[in-house]
Amino acid sequence: MSETGANPGDADAEESGVADTSAPDATLSSRFGAHLRVVLVLFHLTAIFLMAFPAPGGAMKRAAWKDPTVQEEFKAWTGRLNGWGVDVNQEELEDELWKLAVQYTEGRTKILTPLKPYYKYTGTTQSWRMFVAPHRFPAKLEIHVKIGDAWQPAYIARDPDHNWQGQALDHDRFRSAIFRFSWSSYVKTYRSFQTWVGTRAAEDFPEASHVRTRFQKYKTASPEQVKTDTRPAPKVILERVQPLAKYR
To answer: Which among 44, 80, 149, 225 has the fewest CB atoms less than 10 Å away?
Structure first.
């Protein structure tokens, strides 16, 4: 430091006749980088928000709306709306909601279509849709094999005594798929699952001639029905019997 407090480098710069511009350039670059990061973060948050916004998804099939659980919801909301002074019956409510859902889904699809490459690149395609109502008519998977003239249970959901292939079937990922199989709109994937069952049953039960897959569908019991042990009787749905010879 000189007596005057000047930086010796300043004198060198003056003598050479060249101004030091490195500091302003660095500051400009730093500011540009900061602004760019803010833009990218805002873009990412907006894209994720749009993807996460609720949508009916696979439920946009009119046949799925005829499921007893969905019909119970329409019935409940019709009653609420009537209680609030809205004159509408259940059929009208369902029709109007279907029209609204179609318009909403089409609009959401148009907004998200340009962003699909970004979702694929960043791995952010999960929409995280939440449950909208309790499933009042659940379905319980059963698998039986026929040995001789008798059907014997191989797998019954959540039954520790009949847990064939339970390590796979009771896994959280598989249970999510099994839940869908009980809906009529997923009949194709259910057929694929039955092929999977037949292939493994043919190997694990060499003495069996057939395998049967089906669901026991029932309405969840009320507290009073549980106390008095008068639960509603289940109904067998989506039953299919397959000869195991074709898998051997």
So the answer is: 149
